[in-house]
């Protein structure tokens, strides 16, 4: 499980961890997913209401895996 949060981090056993499980760069993933966070913040919707993989990160993963697979952790 890799839930997405607005901050891009989670606290697990008092350790701050990235919620971007498959990308090597936490900062890069946070920047790339900014439009999705802005959308939910502007329209008052919570991404926490969803189950499964959101279409936007899923599409980004597929494109990245095709074009630059070296930055994907498998």
Automatic annotation (TrEMBL):
One of its GO terms (molecular function) is patched binding. Pfam families: Hint. GO terms for cellular component: extracellular space. InterPro entries: Hedgehog, Hedgehog_Hint, Hedgehog_Signaling. Keywords: Developmental protein. One of its GO terms (biological process) is protein autoprocessing. Residues 2-68 form the Hedgehog protein Hint domain. The keyword S-adenosyl-L-methionine does not apply. This is Hedgehog protein Hint domain-containing protein. It comes from Adineta steineri.
């Amino acid at each position: 499980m890799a839930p997405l949060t607005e901050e891009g981090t989670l606290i697990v056993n008092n350790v701050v961890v990235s919620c971007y499980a498959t990308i090597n760069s936490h900062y890069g993933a946070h920047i790339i997913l900014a439009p999705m966070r802005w959308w939910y913040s502007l329209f008052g919707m919570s991404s926490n209401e969803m189950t499964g993989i959101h279409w936007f990160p899923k599409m980004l993963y597929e494109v990245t895996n095709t074009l630059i697979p070296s930055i994907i952790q498998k």
